[in-house]
Design a protein that fits this description.
Layout: H1 5-16, H2 22-29, H3 33-45, E1 65-73, H4 78-89, E2 94-99, E3 106-112, H5 115-124, E4 132-139
Antiparallel strand pairs: 1-3, 1-4, 2-3
């Protein structure tokens, strides 16, 4: 879906505050409520807007440790990747997972309460997946930038 300038403005506003009413949104965009609502609805139906969420401060809910784990798989068959993906998708500590090019095959992002939880995650979950050959972890010392809004 190609976005027009009004749709981009709507998306930028919703990315900052998805609780805006259609009335407020339409005023900020400079159009009446019904056409504005239609624009939002079109983007929802097209999958441009996938949903609405509450952004939670991870530190305030006890998830102060951010860890990136690079994973190298033993083999690269479709069945191996499917099994690995199934395991990772079912693990709540993994908040992001990417298949990547380079020395490793996948990159996982975890939010955990502490380093002890990382040890438990590695021993009780990740290292029990038979498709994994090697892992490398990097613990974030501090968060410099973490944005959810896409640059439109």
């Amino acid at each position: 879906m190609k976005l027009d300038p009004v749709q981009r403005t709507i998306l930028n506003l919703l990315q900052k505050d998805s609780t805006l009413s259609t009335q407020v949104l339409s005023e900020r965009v400079g159009m009446s409520a019904t056409p504005c609502w239609r624009r939002v609805r079109e983007m929802e139906e097209a999958g441009v807007i996938r949903g609405y969420v509450a952004l939670v401060d991870r530190h305030k809910v006890g998830l102060g440790t951010c860890v990136w784990v690079r994973v190298k798989l033993k083999r690269h068959g479709a069945d191996v990747l499917e099994r690995f993906e199934r395991e990772v998708k079912g693990c709540e500590q993994v908040v992001e997972c990417y298949e990547v090019l380079g020395e490793t095959d996948c990159l996982l992002k975890l939010y955990l309460p502490n380093l002890e939880a990382l040890s438990v995650f590695m021993h009780d979950f990740l290292l029990k997946i038979p498709e994994i050959d090697v892992t490398h972890s990097a613990v974030a010392l501090r968060e410099i930038k973490n944005e959810t809004a896409l640059p439109l």
